[in-house]
Amino acid sequence: MQKITMVVHGGAGTITKEEMTPELEKSFLEGLQQALDAGYSILEKGGAAVEAVKAANIALEDNPLFNAGRGSVYTKQGVQEMDAAIMNGKTLEAGAVAGVRNIRNPIKLAMEVMQNSDHVFLSGKGASDFAIKQGIKQEPDEYFFSQYRYDQWKEARDSDNYSLDHSSNDISKLNKKKIGTIGAVACDVNGNVAAATSTGGMTNKKYGRVGDTPVIGGGTYANNHTCAVSCTGHGEVFIRAVAAYDVSALVEYKGLSLTDACNEVVLNKLVQMQGEGGLIAVNSNGEFAMVFNSEGMYRGVKNSDGINETNIYK
């Protein structure tokens, strides 16, 4: 019988164990579980992997703990600019958006790009115009406001510094509003795989910076013949490493197992390039991998073998 598998991540690089409170850890793990359950419930009913990864991403975008959708960080200009991508491993169709504002769920917009435009990648105002045309829900700036995110930005805005959201800083200001790019991969009852990733990017980013999240092959990739991958970490390095596609290529051309391919990219290639982060992956047999070279990665997996777990640290 075909194994169904749902895997999610909420960012790599974490609050250190010394700074993590039991209450905060519980909140993160509950958020990851909600996303797993949202996606898995679709797979369990025979639904498509691409719908499952979208549902899991929506759950994480709606959770202010994570740096995507509602929890997105502030740019240099003091606004949120969000990126997202989704890819269907059965058809190799993909949709991505970059630099969008006021979109409640950027992953829904990426799905619309994939299904209802003649394009793969839309950005900025054009993506926003398409969102309006497709009836994608928008929210006012206040919806995306969080005191912690705002304070984080105020500390950085007068400098040229920027930070990965999951860089640790003063825990007293945390107020349960922290951490990373989010993503999901899934394998459905028909052996189809899909990947989806969403992010608010870097605090104090400027010049319309775009990371690896919406770059097909960089931060997001899916192919039934190999695997589905969603990445999190220092986006510039992941783009240069073509990290998500590299995992697929190692499986396809070198015949590596899913785990070995993920280890090669994350623990060797990215480390040599000084790229911190990790990724989650699944193949059409329902096998999964969750690999990272940072202190931790917010992650979880649920499958038809009875595995159901969420973790932060190694």
Automatic annotation (TrEMBL):
One GO MF term attached to the UniProt entry: peptidase activity
Keyword Repressor found: no
GO annotation terms (biological process): proteolysis
This protein's UniProt keywords: Autocatalytic cleavage, Hydrolase, Protease
Signal peptide limits: none
Keyword Protease annotated: yes
Binding site for substrate: 209-212, 232-235
Pfam families given in the database record: Asparaginase_2
Site entry (Cleavage), positions: 180-181
Organism in which the protein naturally occurs: Tannerella sp. oral taxon BU063 isolate Cell 6/7/9
Protein name: Isoaspartyl peptidase
Positions of the catalytic residues: 181 (nucleophile)
InterPro entries: Ntn_hydrolases_N, Peptidase_T2
